[in-house]
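Side project, low priority. Logging it here so it doesn't get lost.
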Amino acid sequence: MWDYSEKVKEHFFQPRNAGVLEGANGVGDVGSISCGDALRLMLKVAPETDIILDAHFQTFGCGSAIASSSALTEMIKGKTLDEALKVSNQDIADYLDGLPPEKMHCSVMGREALQAAVANYRGEVWSDDHEEGALVCKCFAIDAVMIEDTIRANNLSSVQDVTNYTKAGGGCSSCHEGIEEILVKVMTERGESFKPGAQPKDEAKPAGMTNLQRIRKIEAVLESVRPQLKRDGGDIELVDVDGKTIYVNMTGACAGCQMEALTLQGIQQKLMEELKEFIKIVPTKAGALSRASCHP
């Protein structure tokens, strides 16, 4: 799994400034519980000086989301609003002595919540630009403007980078082509060429993993979710592995279930976390593929 710094653990186990802030005069809400991450940032600002006297947060999300929110509140207290707005998502990650690449979207969410809270205090309407940019990732409601801005701000160069920083492309993966088009555009502007399959930012390939070890890791993840599927009358089996595409067969009540796509998204995320690489999981019928099964 991921390597968390001691500071991330500290802010997760003992978050600073968690809970409702009485007398808050600036509130910013970002994310969505249905997408797995949501953050409310509350500010108490001195009207005479625009200095942030206090900041609290409420977060629904993973440990990195909680730690990022906690760190952000500590970083901005005592700053003017303009000073606080200069805090970048990378500043939040650096304050925590780094975040795993797969969790950088948590720091991006904190940055957006700060922008929304300041706009709320100033009586402005903050927009995440969804109406201005075409919706690229329907799974997590991420638009082209956010993807483009995040690529520029963090010097990203791969689809997995974009997923790590925004979550776009981490669901059904049907938006990968759209993400690649944005990468080509931004990287061309900075004099670089987009290379499909490029290594993610700050992430090395898992060392020393044979094909057999990789398949066994995949099988172990599938085994871990099978008990829950069986309780609902369904099951899953590994059919084949072709590079970064993993073919599975959903059986019993899981076959054709209305929740099948959501279930596969969850399994795909678990596989990416375990393998430390970007993969795609595809449902198929047993025996539908001409190649042999990957079961030992």
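Brief comment: The domain at 135-189 is CATH 1.10.10.1100 (Arc Repressor Mutant, subunit A).
Revisit when time allows.
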